[in-house]
From TrEMBL:
PROSITE patterns: OMPR_PHOB, RESPONSE_REGULATORY. The lineage of its organism: Bacteria, Pseudomonadati, Pseudomonadota, Alphaproteobacteria, Rhodobacterales. Residues 192-295 form the OmpR/PhoB-type domain. Transmembrane segments: none annotated. Residues 192-295 bind DNA. Residues 85-204 form the Response regulatory domain. Keywords: DNA-binding, Plasmid. It holds the Pfam family Trans_reg_C. It comes from Alloyangia pacifica. This is Response regulator transcription factor. One of its GO terms (molecular function) is DNA binding.
Length: 299
């Protein structure tokens, strides 16, 4: 080693604050590209500063990346709370996939898959837009209490959801336990796939019609009592319903001559039907007999 090299002072690179701040921004940009990242570090100076920058920047990048993942999970949870969805809860992967594909072919756009009841419980919240739930009860236990508990919880929190359950164990009391938990339908493990599709289609169609009927009643702006009166008249559409029959069904009391409370409510119902249906659906008063709902419009 020459004397000139021995007497040469060590070169230390001191980065101003603004330069270091710019460097940190560049590091974050280049982090996903290892080659460019290392080349940039070599331009910063001494190895000790490079090590410190690597330590700080890696820690900050990991921290920010973790926050982004948390936000993504939060966004997915928020989407579940807004957009309607169906869920398949089945421990067997192949069966879970097959059922999910069947639900998608049935017209359900968003189908989530869960292997265990505990995972599905995170989706079943009060008022969640759950359209349908298809669950499989294990064959390895005398009674699948976890899955039955999930069914009961879903029925309580999301009463309008369609719930179908398949008993893989073909238990003698399997169907009774499934219905008691709150499911709409139950099948044995040896069912034909076409039967499952048919049952699902019928249940979904019924739920859709019920939802449409509820929406029409909301649009009419009826009071709870008016809804009950109209529902009773609708059950006997085209038939004369007496005031005494209305009083017994709606109020649980006897009607006495001169009591005109139903005339008032029916008058309001008539006006609201006319605003929405015109002459396609109307309530007509039959003198000294009662009321009759006439028309072919769906309600």
């Amino acid at each position: 080693m020459s004397a000139s090299s021995m007497s040469r002072p060590a070169v230390t690179t001191h980065l101003p604050g603004s330069t270091l701040k710019s460097a940190k921004g560049t590091l974050a940009t280049l982090y996903p590209f290892p080659c460019l990242y290392l080349v940039f570090l070599l331009t910063l100076g001494r190895a000790d500063r490079i090590r410190r920058l690597i330590h700080v920047e890696c820690r900050e990048f990991s921290s920010s990346h973790g926050k982004k993942s948390d936000k993504t999970l939060s966004d997915e949870s928020e989407m579940t709370n807004r957009a309607s969805f169906a869920v398949v809860v089945e421990r067997d992967t192949a069966q879970r996939t097959a059922w999910s594909q069947m639900l998608e072919r049935s017209g359900l756009r968003r189908v989530l898959r869960r292997a265990r009841p505990a995972e599905a419980r995170e989706l079943v919240t009060p008022g969640a837009p759950l359209t349908a739930m298809l669950v499989g009860l294990t064959a390895h236990l005398p009674r699948d209490d976890d899955m039955l508990g999930l069914i009961a919880e879903a029925r309580r929190l999301v009463p309008d959801a369609v719930i179908l359950a398949i008993d893989h164990g073909n238990r003698p009391r399997g169907a009774a336990e499934i219905f008691a938990a709150g499911a709409d339908d139950a099948l044995r493990a040896d069912h034909d796939p076409s039967e499952l599709r048919a049952r699902l289609s019928v249940r979904l169609r019924g739920a859709s019609l019920a939802g449409q009927r509820a929406a029409r009643l909301v649009q009419l702006g009826l009071t709870p009592l008016e809804e009950r009166i109209l529902a009773f008249l609708n059950l006997r559409r085209g038939q004369i319903v007496s005031r005494s029959a209305l009083a017994a069904e709606v109020a649980g009391a006897e009607w006495s001559y001169g009591d005109r409370r139903f005339d008032v409510h029916v008058g309001r119902i008539r006006k609201k039907l006319e605003e929405s249906y015109g002459t396609a659906l109307r309530v007509r008063t039959i003198r000294a007999q009662g009321y009759v709902l006439e028309g072919d419009a769906p309600l």
